[in-house]
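Re-run with default settings, no changes from the original entry. Doing this only to confirm the output is reproducible before filing.
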Amino acid sequence: MVAKDYIDESTGELICAANMELSLDLLAKLSQSGHKRIETLFTNDLDHGPYISETLRVDPTNDRLSALVEIYRMMRPGEPPTREAAESLFENLFFSEDRYDLSCGWSYEVQPFSAARRNRRFRYPEQRRHH
């Protein structure tokens, strides 16, 4: 899969859109138009599935604003979407520090865990006697 749109610089023509499957013909077109480096999306069936690529393929939106409006319509059905309302909803859902303050959860200090410390914690004597 191609990771971004590629345009022929001399004509302004779109050679391929992002998320298009890379074929030998497409590779030849890109090479002929002067593109030396091609960014791709790596997927495999083991641990890097094509989930994002498949989601983008069925997504009807083509730009940021239309995507925000679609999210707004799903979250607030019946309310007319405006640019400001859609942007505000998205910002508050995902980027608001008031809603997602994770700082307390990630500030633990890791200390070495020695056997002596473990024994004190569970009230075991330092050395056990064997009869």
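The chain is about 35% helix and 5% strand. The two ends are 70 Å apart (CA to CA).
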